[in-house]
Structures are given as structure tokens and as C-alpha cells.
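Quick check before the chapter quiz. The format below is the same one you will see on the exam, so make sure you can read both the input and the output lines.
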Amino acid sequence: MKGKKESVDYLPYPGETLTYRTGDCDDLATLYLAMLESVGVETAFITVPGHIYAAFALDANLAAAKNSFSDLDKLVFAGDRIWVPIETTSLGKGFAEAWATGAREWREAERQHAAVLVPVHEAWQVYEPSFISSAEKVDVVAKFPDPSRVAASYSTAMKDLSTRELAALVAQATGGQAVSRLSPQAKNRLGTIYARYGQMDKAEPLFRDAAAAGYDPALCNLGNILFLKKDWSGAADYYGKALSLMRGNASAALGKARALFEGGRYADAAASFAKASLLA
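Here is the expected output.
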């Protein structure tokens, strides 16, 4: 235990925890982080008084986090990274519950200046990763669940999480107003929220309303939606309209170039790429 040299704890290897099918907070955190690191996700340990759990890094900056999450208090800002805290002992209750618990524990300990986040990659610089020798190797005999069950559970958890986050972000964007009363800028903002969560059927009408009201950035968003629909000609037209109204917009020029290229208009695409290069 931290601060008590007389306390000795045994930390099993991740494979051993899988085999034993049980473990305390440090065992489960180590297993969880090992699995994430094995697929290239950067991780960290979080320590609070008498407890340790896990976190993983987001591939996002502050601006992206503000656009994607309804409550930044659920994130940990440490160093130059943004982390998602996960209470690994609560994962049996679902990802959302484990995340909420981890965030709450961090906030409570941080107020007491007792929360510490230790990135695993930094820890490796001090403590080299250890390996099991052939003499002490424990065969992993854990029975893994059916992949279809894992996929179904993952889909359900992500759908519930997305529904919750989307509802909160929409409420923030509308401020309690009816959508019809929103300004063109607000409609465009609301459209980007729906689009980010894959609800293009709700995003497109909002972009069209905003564009019709003279909010030019919505034209680029319409181009993006048609590009995703593989309507190359329609996407190029919208990007072109945006570029004619926002002549210094490199994103519109690049979008037009990509749409023209995908539509097989290679000479026009080359010219648009050249223009985008000059504007970038």
C-alpha cells in the first residue's frame, strides 16, 4: 500500500488474472490497461487514497472534447493529454457506470490534492516491463466469451452512451428553445452535433435551413453530407457555392477537389487542389 513499506502486495500478470477470474483493484486495472495497450491505446493508472484504477487517453484536443462531450468534468486533464477515467471494479455494471464512478473518484480526490495520474509509458521509463520466465509461466486457461456476445454487449453500451451524450449536447445547443426559433448559426451548430453522432437525417435539414438563411458555413456541411452519400456532383456544387461566398476557405476548396476527383473529373480536381494549396 502506498506510504506503508511494511505492506506487501502480490500483483499477478494479466494472464494470471484471466486464469484466476478474480482480482482486486490493482489486478483488474493492470489487466484492463494491458489489454488496451496491446491494441495501441495509451493508458494510465490513477491513484486516490487507498485505491488504484485506470484511464485511457483520448486522441483529441480541448476544442474537440468540448464538441464531443456534454460534461468535461467526466474527463481528466493531465499533462498535455485528455484521459477517460474508468473504475475497473465497476465494469460489471457497464462502461457508463464505470466511467461515471471513475470521474467522481477523481474529482473527490483532486479536491483534496490526493489524485495522481501516472501514464504507463512514463512509468516504463522508470520501471522496465517485466516478463514471465519459462520456469514460472502460467498457462492462460480462461474461457473467453463468445465474440458475438461481446460485440452485442459493446454495441448496446455504446448506443446507450451515445444516446445519453447526444441528448445532453442537443439540450445545451437549443437552450430549451424550439428548433424553428434557433438562429442560423445555432441550427448549423445543432446540425454538426447530429452529424457527429451519425444522424444525418436530422443534420441535413438543419444545414439547409441555415444555408437558406444566409449562413455560408452550412454550405460546406451540406457538401460534407453529400460527399458521405457519394453524391460527388452535388457535393462539388455545395463546396463551390461555399468557396464563391468564402473565397479564402481552404476547406471548401479541398472538399471541392476531393469531390471532383471522386467523380472522375481529374483535371478540374487538380485545379481545385492547386487552389486549396494556395489557400492553406
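If your answer matched, good. The first helix runs from residue 14 to 20.
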